[in-house]
Structure formats: structure tokens, C-alpha cells
Design goal:
This protein is an alpha+beta fold. A five-stranded antiparallel β-sheet has the order 1-4-5-6-3. A three-stranded antiparallel β-sheet has the order 2-7-8. It has one domain (5-134): Thiol Ester Dehydrase, Chain A (Roll). The chain is built from three helices and eight strands; from the N terminus they run βααβββββββα. Strand 5 and strand 6 form a beta hairpin. It comes from Cupriavidus pinatubonensis.
Amino acid sequence: MTAVFRNTVLVRFKHCDAAGIVFYPRYFEMLNDFIEDWFAQALDWPFDAMHGAGHAGVPTADLHCRFVAPSRLGETLTRELRVVKLGQSSFTVQVRFMGPDSGLRLQVTQRLVCVDTGKIAPRPLPDPVRQAMASYVDETLAPTGSPGI
């Protein structure tokens, strides 16, 4: 059975526009926070260790999103992550933001690449991290977006 990484985020005033709904760039901040949580809590490679002693980073190489319904101030959203594709240095995830009613609010397909921060060049994911990621691979999900994913 495929693991799903899941946690919640409260929609705060700072996330919203004047209409009280999430301003779309704030979703990308929530997405980055969620990826950082996954690395720390599920993959045992927190960003401080990755960027510090690890001399690595995982910048986004490709991002496709579909905004389905608005999220409002005060709501708690559930975020879910599954791995769509796992390579040696890159990986593609599908992230879904669900509302309190379990309705889909946002779906993202994101490809990230492990890079050496000194050279800014791809490098292989560390074996323990790649092995931990493998438990989140859901082969029933097809990559979406550009043909290059």
C-alpha cells in the first residue's frame, strides 16, 4: 500500500486577499512549507541539514496547478502528497489541498530536482532519502502537465 504524507494548515489572515479568500501566491508558500514538512517528518532530511551540511537543495523545475474552489479565512485545509515519479536526482509529486468538507481546493503536480548548492547542478538523492520517498510512490497516478515531466 502506498503511503500518503498528510498534514493540515490553517488559512490565516496573511494568506487572504480583501475578499477573505486565499490569494493564489500564498498557496505556493503553503506548498513549499508542506514539502519542507515532508522532508523533515517523513524523509529524515530536514532543510537545515540539507542546505547546511548536505550542501544540497531541491528547487522546483516544473509546476502545474489547478485551482478548483476557493479557500477562506479560518478554514483548516488538509494537504496530501504522493510521489508520481521517482528518478535518481528528480522526483515528481502530486499535492492536493482539501477543504474542511473534504472537497478539492487545489491540485499541484510539481517536479523537484536535487542539486549540489555549490555547483547548482543535479546530484543524486541520498540513498536513505530516495528509499524513504519510494514508499510514497503511487503508480496509479500519471504525471500531468508538460510532456517533459
